[in-house]
Specification:
CATH class of the largest domain in chain A: Alpha Beta
Cofactor (chain B): adenosylcob(III)alamin
Family (chain B): Belongs to the methylmalonyl-CoA mutase family.
CATH class of the largest domain in chain B: Alpha Beta
Number of strands of chain B: 17
Oligomer: heterodimer
Keywords (chain B): Cobalamin, Cobalt, Isomerase, Metal-binding
Shape of chain B: globular
Helix content of chain A: 40-55%
Structural class of chain B: alpha/beta
Protein name (chain B): Protein meaA
Largest sheet of chain A: 7 strands, parallel
Largest sheet of chain B: 5 strands, parallel
Shape of chain A: globular
Pfam families (chain B): B12-binding (PF02310), MM_CoA_mutase (PF01642)
Radius of gyration of chain A: 19 Å
Largest interface: A-B, 41 and 45 residues
Chain lengths: ~260, ~675
Amino acid sequence: MSELDQLVEGAIALDKWPLARLVRLFEDTRPGAVAEKAAAIAALEAHGAAPRAMVAGFTGTPGSGKSTLVGQLAARLAAREAAAAVAVLAIDPSSHRSGGSILGDRTRVHFPVGERRLFFRSQPSDRELGGMGRATYPVVRLLERLFDYVFVETVGIGQSEVEIERLADRVYLVLQPLGGDQVQFMKAGIMEVPHAFILNKCDVGAAARRSYHALRASIDFARPGEAAPPPIFRTSAISGEGLDDVLDDLAAHRSVRDAAGRQAR
Amino acid sequence: MTSPTDPGQAPPQRLPHRLYDADGNPTTDRPWIFRTYAGHSSAAASNALYRKNLAAGQTGLSVAFDLPTQTGYSSDHPLALPEVGKVGVPINTIDDMHQLFEGIPLAEMNTSMTINATAMWLLALYIGVARERGEDVRKLQGTTQNDIIKEYLARGTYIFPPEASLRLIAEMYEYCLDNLPKWNASNICSYHLQEAGATPAQELAFALANAIGVLDTIRERGAVPPERFPDVVGRISFFVNSGIRFIEEMCKMRAFVELWDEITRDRYGVQDPKQRLFRYGVQVNSLGLTEQQPENNAWRILIEALGVTLSRKARCRALQLPAWNEALSLPRPWDQQWSLRLQQILAYETDLLEYPDIFDGSVVIESKTEELKRQAREEIARIEAMGGIRAAVESGYLKSQLVRSMSERVSKINSGELVIVGVNRWTEGLPSPLLTGEDGGIFKVDEAETRRTLEALAAVKANRDPARVQAALAALEEAARTGKNMMEPSIECALARVTTGEWADTLRRVFGEYRPPTGVEGQRLYVDSDRVAEVRRRAEEFVRRTGHRPRIVVGKPGLDGHSNGAEVIAVAARHCGFDVVYSGIRLTPEEIVQSAIEEAADVIGLSILSGSHLDLTRQVIEGLRAAGAGDAIPVIVGGIIPKDDHEALRALGARQIFTPADFDLADVMSRIMDVVEAQAGAGAR
């Protein structure tokens, strides 16, 4: 058996080391890697590993508690659905000067050691504008053949929401309660893309309630005339509040998608 | 000499250079409390050490606990086992505490405990011992360090989230106010902030903002009646660092004294000047102690001791000196004795204690002090504007400020702008005869002591009353959930022979565990040289050749939380073009292995300062093999690693070893790049 076949078989079994090396192949954006990636896709097809994952994008400003939230959602999902395998791809910005990066999202995610159904991978944005790197798209195309859910976490600074829309079945914008008024939500200019909003850190109390109403008003203003206004979920990573609501939303849209047949993206 | 109260005599002339007591009689000052930070191996071994130190003229105790005790694990927990007795004494139950203080009357001792997240528990054990011995609990004197903010920022032995942690601290103040009136429930620490890179102005500002945070919390809780609040303010004490820039450090101490007087008067309305005193203890700086030419550290320690004793107005209440060889290993008893002798010479041989403040009226000192005060006030205002110390911790602001200051310091050492004798100047020296003794000048923990600790723990568990244990833990949990003060339930836990792990686990269930921001994201390093450019060029070449950027996983296995070294490496690696997966502190070897595997890392950098490097490195390398990665991911190790252990580490499979002597970051990164390139040459994707 060729090395590539071994990697593919190991990855399908969710064995972490071959899986991680296969991800590395899909991160390789050199023209020379194209043929090898195609071979890997062919091998995956041959083993019946077709694209199947529900891909959810989580974007939001730094400090909104995205990483912790995404980690908890993934762990909770794996606990709720005994057969579900969940991959998290967390993207951090690269330095424009050195090309290097600090991939710090792992600090806030603690998956049980040895659990094959949970896989976490960091990825640098690789000097790309927006929240995603050149390798994000190919890696998601790989992971969606191996997992039932793929969560992509990006830093939201305006551009990336548009990119992530192309990539994900459902996009969540994660916000933290603000002290101020709706203008602060508007300023971000990222209100139009997400399918749903998550107001995180809702353990903060009064600030969270105020922010909820300000956000509601902002959405109505930014997206007039929408038949069904997008939901706003209130979550807390400390108490676990609202996490199941987000997962229910995800599951509901997965059923809708599966019923309609896989949409072309 | 004529008594000034004699009738019929002319009033005596007061000389400005003399000290006079309340009655006008000439006097001299009493010395500060002499302490040595000590504890290791087991309760019995530490007790023997304390009795020896007290006999040698030490006047107070400073207890060092091991990392499991500090982070709320009993010695038999898997995470605890490699660390038992390494950096301090393991305390599992009240019987260990009895053993630790055997033959030492608690009511007559002044005991300082370096304990934070589990401070309430250790104080409960101390009180429990006093009660069981029939000693007067109200007479207990001493300090529990109990400063959680600096744990989040620098030291790393936190457990619970900020709100719960501040509640524990506040409840100890509330309890001590009436029950242990001479106990300092907490000690606001700026010591560790300086170790983490804080400038003097940052040290002032962060520590004072921290004290404000504690006092505001207590005031808002409303458990202390307003008329008693000044008593709480009066119990706030500080633990400060003294660095090598000793004139500036002395001015920093004067600035502390004046700013604290101001804050307690203006913010809290304290009338009694005694309750506005800045009471502080000092550990002189260990960060500046060098592995190279370690004998030079003796002079550094002396100079730093002067910084906190020369100015009477800003003289410390208690002083701990490190030992000359702390950059090499934990000190031996003789090394600690040498440092104690320094204090005794300073206090008893010199004329230091005969004078009033010798810097009053100095234009230079006053101007420097004013400048520090101004900078500190500005920084305090910034923190207040963010919502206070807690918000500034949670947002990562404080940590990122510290990591930046540290990066700047390291950059200056690398460029030679900051001179460190024996490190980046005058590096050629004769071999030190101090290091050629039988033990190589370093201390090693006797592994057999760990077995004794575990046996003692098993014996207590077998012989206690399980019903009383269950009831005590249930009462603790109930208090934690309902907001009742947890001190008495903790004391009952102590008396019931609950273990450290059981106490902490109960509160973990209620409060959860917390991971603060790491502060390394978005940091820059100011080291630019041809050698850095060369490493970057090699990184780019690596990308071209392999299709991915060199990727390093940096992690601290075990319970040791001193993360500065790991953070500097993380920032430096990014600066040199690496993708850095920084997973923070207190990780199990299994977690680090999983990170490296999932990330398909090119190299793992372990940072270990606790002395457990052999065990932990072995576990990581074996874990990689068990996960099917074989030796495909090379492991490098950095930390306080004695020369004697280098060979054993290499035999285990460590590809590079870095110690405090490796301060040149371009060189460190270049050697890491060597390892990465060699591995890429050896294996496929």
